[in-house]
Amino acid sequence: MMKTSFLKKVLVTSALTAALVTQASAGKEKKYIIATASTGGTYYPVGVGIATIASLKLAKKYKMTFSAITSAGSGENVDMIDKGEVDFAILQGLFGSMAWQGKDKYEGKPRKNLRSVSMLWQNVEQFVVYNEIAKTGNIMDMTNMYGKKFSIGKRNSGTRVSGQTVLSALGIDYTKMDLQFLGYGPSATALQDGKIDGMNIPSGPPTSAVTNAYATIGADKIRHLEFSDADVKKIQASYPVWTRYVIAKGTYPGQKADINTIAQPNLLVVTKDTPDETVYLLTKTMYENLPFLNTVHKATKVMDIKKAIAGLPMPLHPGAAKYYKEQGIDIPDRLIAK
Questions:
Q1: Same domain for 221 and 150
Q2: Which of 100, 203, 294, 322 could form a disulfide linkage to 314, CB 3.0–4.6 angstroms apart?
């Protein structure tokens, strides 16, 4: 296992990738971009990890390089991939379902050009608030946020949409809050500075922004709001992509008990026009180098080839399907692209 810091990995890999690109410049270099989210969450480091290992393994032989870029998250990622500004994107399951079906902001305009590559890990809902807001510790305490400043995520992000969807399903009127549209890192900083009273950070635990908040403010002053079984049923009735998730005690500084929350799948998507070989090789490289990705972020430790097609809201790209079939994965008809 690699012991170097993530920052060193990125710097070293950036230099190595640049060298590989230079060596291959005489040929037709194929460059692919992966859209992620803000740097304080899980999407960005995992996206960088995928781009890093794919470039290292594929640049020399196949003349393919990959890079990850920051974004506002799922909402912007759908827009960018639709406009051809990026080639791959990491999306929340909720956003993928909305885009594919043509629901909510995509009403009447389904994104049928999208194809799934893989389920990556679960996106865990993390509503973190000051203790004075958390009277009971249940998500319904968000009604105590009325009139107070709450960071619900960037305006064009999946964070904002998932947060609003969850709250609305429970009958909590988020419009009564003084909403702040901040990314993960800025949200944690604002919470630490007392400029907001709570934040919405859906991500794979441990999330750096949440870790920083607990370490700086203290677990005796802030907490995660939890979801009851009844809450889960209400949310599933709206969009059946969320399931129970338990954040084990000790995941965050000073966290002495398990946290009962919910989660939805995160997935890597691509357009149907992306070459089969590209998607096949990227999928193969990801799953044959999971130990590397595990050193990038703990969220990737749950990635497993047996779970690769779980919860996908749209058909698989033929390149990804080819790899899964080689690994003995039985692909249901609904995931076979027509």
A1: yes
A2: 100
